[in-house]
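User: Fold this; tokens only.

Assistant: Input:
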Amino acid sequence: MKSICVIGGGKWGQNHIRTLFEMGNLGGIVEANPKRLKELLEKYSVKGFQDVEAAIKENFDGFTIAAPAPLHYEIAKLLIQNGKNVLVEKPMTLSSETSLELVELAKAKGVKLMVGHVLLFHPAIRKIKEVIDNGKIGTLYYIYSNRLNLGTVRTEENVFWSLAPHDVSIFDFFVGKPAISIKARGQKFLQPDVYDSTLAQIAYPDNIHGHIFTSWLHPFKEHRLVVIGSRGMISFEDSSPEKEIKFYNKHIEFEQGIPIKVENPTEIIPYENRQPLTEELKYFVENLDKKIEIANGQSGYEVVKVLEKAQQLIDEK
């Protein structure tokens, strides 16, 4: 049984801890706050540490980093330098330069590096990827995502860095290739230096395009994903009670140069109801002796490149 140590006992770190414990793979917890660490160790009978250096000395099979994003690079680099397998939460780091450094260091050290783009393990996202790859929608044209809500408003990162990593990772996953260009705009309303609403347009090879609308200043919650192809279209709204994948059997054909709408009944595509974080952590554990293909370090680096470029473009406006 693989033994994993979780670094960070905050809200999301506790999700890692609980899930790995339920899987039978929790080996240790690193938490700097002694009171919180004590509480966690009373609940989970595993080894506890207040610093990463002490945990490195133990023989864990891997580590997950659920510490605040500004600490990701420093902690991941230390672990990789010591030959440890790592799953680091998104965003991988706060710059493409440091993300690429981690990718290259992991290769040099021969260790696994994975990034916590948890929605790539959502069963609905996996099913949509399957539908795209089997040709049901024909040629992939474009993808769009709305990730909107009222709050949680951040003070240290803008809405694009906070919400869009999910969608950039999903777009890359669906297309199977990283973005080649991006355009982005943003607006600041609540704070002078933090963007509350952004719209990004992303171009991929083979004339595939996407756009991402993010806002935490919105009257209702909407996490909607739409995929358009030459033979059909897909929608998935994770914020809806039903959480259905809908296949719209409709497209445009040309007859003697005239565009004609072809429309057939909409189909509901079934998928298994499984917890994305559980699936993500299972994948990490099960592939420690194999190859990390989904959400690997390279894909995490590509996501950070888009985030960084979008930030640059937004700031220039």
